[in-house]
Fold this protein.
Amino acid sequence: MPVTHLDSLEKIVSLSKSRGFIFQSSEIYGGLSAVYDYGPLGIELKRNVQNAWWKAMTQVHDNIVGVDAAIFMHPKVWEASGHVEGFNDPMIDDKQSKKRYRADMIIEQHILKLREKGDADKADELQQLLDTSGTRKGLCEDLYDIIMEEEIRAPESGAFDWTDVRQFNLMFKTHYGAVTKDEDDVIYLRPETAQGIFVNYKNVMDTARVQVPFGIAQIGKAFRNEVVARQFVFRMREFEQMEMQYFVEPGTDGDEYDKWLEKRMEWHNNLGVRGELLRAEPHPEDKLAHYARAAADIQYKYPIGWQEVEGIHNRTDFDLSRHHEYSGKKMEYYDQKEQKRYTPYVIETSVGLDRTMLMILCDAYREEEVDGDVRTVLKMHPKLAPTKVGIFPLIKKPELKELAHKIEKELKEDFTVLYDESGSIGKRYRRQDEAGTPFCVTVDFDGLDDNTVTIRYRDDMKQDRVSVDKLESVIRDRIKNWKPE
Ligand code: ATP
């Protein structure tokens, strides 16, 4: 049976390991949960995604510039941002298995089960309770009450033997410098990259000669001590974000928010993922963070369901005002033309690099029947493919190898290429199909006479005979005009 959509992450996890996209961290020691390393193919894909984002967010805009802020920041930053006080998840432990869960997620799973059983009324009632939890007594007590009243059992052990629900701060804490360990030298690993942008807002304004509206973009690592992290690179404890904060005049924020939501949807579509698996989901007004005026998730239909890959937020002047308050430094903008002073509002676009990678891998994955055999192929956009061209001499004859190496050397200037002379041509094609390589070039004896080669396309497996001199332009054209199936 051909596979065009996955219903679990299993095949992606196993292909990622076998082909060198993604490995578990410290695997020889049994692994470190929710931390992953990118292998040779993974890092090429990752760089291509980063470059596509960087170009779309900086190069094509004359009013968006980049920064690369440090991971360590002054501890006051996280007080100002609200993370020390409020960046918590409610956790609960199953006393029997000693496993820890997110209390809200346990309830969500229970609601899903009720829906599967057809008990929609009860599911709706609980969903409403969950949505309003925390507004009556306190989040932890509310969640605990629901779990008790519904007699929800632990997913793995089946036990009904819970601890209380407690708040758990997701920031990783460590100590800074070689001084004694007291509270004064506590430092955090940043849980988001955005604050590195806000604290540099003035520096950028003073040096880059930008005027509102303008944006600051950044790609970097973020760390969250997630309570539950069992979904491959979807939810990690160390991950990478690509964020852009766009500073605008209050009053124009509504339009700018709409514009950025549209632009960011377009970017995801341009990555070549299937449009019907992407959607924008606005947050209902009563579920917005206290400082946000509007927010939406861009969601992809992963094998684990519709999930957020990017968040677009209208953060108002919350962050700049808080940094003004906590640092004592003015964060206002002076509009010389209009001769007025104000604290800009911020429209944030925040996309997870690892979740984008996972989206691309899941979207590209296909199993097809070819001559009674199964072909596994990653039909990703050729511009993202880790290796662009596989180059094969038909057999290991010196004259074929020589021409193949010559072509390899020429194409290397413009594309990532891979020379391979081992195994049958069919096997070499299959290896490249699994790696998502969009083009394979085979050098045969005819080519020695007329300087032509066979180029084979990954998606439809069709082949063309092309003059060696035209290879580069054929490949370029194909990359430019590629469309998802
Ligand atoms: P979720 O609700 O799924 O935990 P979030 O709303 O906390 O996500 P944001 O704080 O808006 O996420 O972060 C912006 C982006 O960073 C997310 O859209 C996601 O792509 C990415 N991200 C957040 N947490 C993680 C994580 N633990 N692992 C991988 N990527 C993450």
In short: The domain at 387-480 is CATH 3.40.50.800 (Rossmann fold). Residues 136 and 142 are 8 Å apart (CA to CA).
